[in-house]
Amino acid sequence: MFTSPYGPVEIPTQSIFDYLFGDLTEAELDRTAVIDGASGAALSYRTLVDQITRVAGALAADGVGPGTVVGLLCPNTPEFTAIFHGILRAGATVTSINSLYTPDDIQRQLHDSGATWLVTVTPLLAGAKAAAHAAGISDENIVVIDGEPGHPSLADLLAVDAAAPALSIDPATHVAVLPYSSGTTAAPKGVMLSHRNLVANVQQARDLIGVIPDDKVLALLPFYHIYGMTVLLNLAFKQRASLVTMAKFDFVEFLRMIQDHRCSYVFIAPPIAVAVAKHPLVEEYDLSSVHTILSGAAPLDGALAAAVATRLDCRILQGYGMTEVSPVSHLIPIDAPHLSRASVGVTVPNMDCKLVSTETGEEIEIPEDGVSEPGELLVRGPNVMLGYLNNEKATRETIDADGFLHTGDIATVSALGEVTIVDRSKELIKYKGYQIAPAELEALLLTHPRIKDAAVIGAADADGQEIPKAFVVAVAESAVTAEEIMAYVTERVAPHKKVRAVEFIDAIPKSASGKILRKDLRAKEKAAAV
Ligand code: 4UW
Q1: Does residue 318 contact residue 291 with C-beta atoms inside 8 Å?
Q2: Distance 78 CA to ligand 1 centre (A)
Q3: 225, 331, 434, 516: which is deepest, by most CB within 10 A?
Q4: pTM summary value
Q5: Nearest residue by C-alpha to atom 8 in ligand 1
Q6: How far apart are CA 157 and CA 51, in angstroms?
Q7: What is the pLDDT of residues 149-191, one digit of tens each?
Q8: Rounded to an integer, what distance in angstroms lies between the CA atom of residue 220 and that of residue 52?
Q9: What is the pLDDT of residues 4-22, one digit of tens each?
């Protein structure tokens, strides 16, 4: 077993609202909490807390409270921050939904999570409404933040003068959020994260990430995903920093917002690092305000990290984790220049880890110097989820009897506790940090009349970034092209789930029990790349 090189931190027994906002000083209340990156409109901590409290009071007056699940489908905006914390402040649970989702995806999540309310915005309303109706949610329970006749708006909620309810929840067991994740098996599942999970992860990560009150933190990573939720929406607020929200990613806007708002701390996923390292436009903007970039959600190549640090003359750090871990379990801390940028750093405080052999299940020994053999990374700590919603089987398969969560990631660890992710044993594909379950794409491919069999794996594009690639067995003598197949998928899935490469083969490798042998396909892919 190995742990953090840092001593344990105290985890207060509080709701996430009390933890983040309960001890704001007068001076802190006047600081800027959120800036709308597009318009420049700013909200102070005082206004934010007032809005959170009003939203909580209004929702509670409408019967929203402990036991209610509210879907939240909204891009990154200042309003998101007030609504999100308002729902939690009312004691209800937020199931945060990917804004790229199709109506079918949205409906599945609303239905599975048992959501009875949905909060969204007019640009997403058509799809959201169809999905909500199909999930049995009526118009009066669909809040449209920016206003739509027949629906409550944020302004309506803020105008209700009802006190926020006095809550008596147990932070350790009360489910605060239900983001969806595939984990180590196929379909997306509701990840039950308690108030304590969320509080713990901010406490565990805050000193290592090192956001300070004077930081302007660019919030381009979506708040609906656990990375944006914990590191931006919670951690940046706890540090009394200012968030600059970006509703839709666009590289030129990204550069402009950093320059115009003098952003100092920027959280990214690896594809953005590629653009920062290579794009000629970078030279045309003043990015001198950036002191630190932190990348997470997918592997960051060491040479790429170095190129970014050199071009922007800033620090580059890396974080690793997963939705089920709230998410941060490993980080390169802000004050650790000696750690390799190809590693994901060290274990955060209050966590135990071990590596186990994927063949024997035996624990892998950690050498006294040098680096261990690779094995599956197992993690345990106060930030590990309560379990998957209504899915005890998947929970038991993921968290073992000793409380260790099996990440499905293959790692090595050095004698100094430096962890490097070297592979993934689970099926999950990450495209730009977004999750894709290959089984979903395989099921869709099999509905194509000219496809006999199919398997999807993660492959590398020219920049070394992961993309979903389909191996396809065509129906004999049918002349189906790769382009036709990609177009067929594109028409039916959210944009991040598109199949981006197709290879025709004679047969999909399968085990005797009929399971796709993904590792054979991955080996074939690797061999072809050499
Ligand atoms: N290197 C290699 C990485 C890395 C990685 C994630 O969608 P989820 O469930 O969750 C996330 C979490 C992102 C995140 C965690 C902690 C942190 O500090 C940070 O940056 C500040 C971001 O994406 O996907 C989880 C899966 O994504 C892969 C890995 O396979 C993991 O199980 N993954 N980060 N740095 N792979």
Answers
A1: no
A2: 25
A3: 331
A4: 0.97
A5: 322
A6: 9
A7: 999 999 999 999 888 999 899 999 999 999 999 987 778 999 9
A8: 22
A9: 999 999 999 999 999 999 9
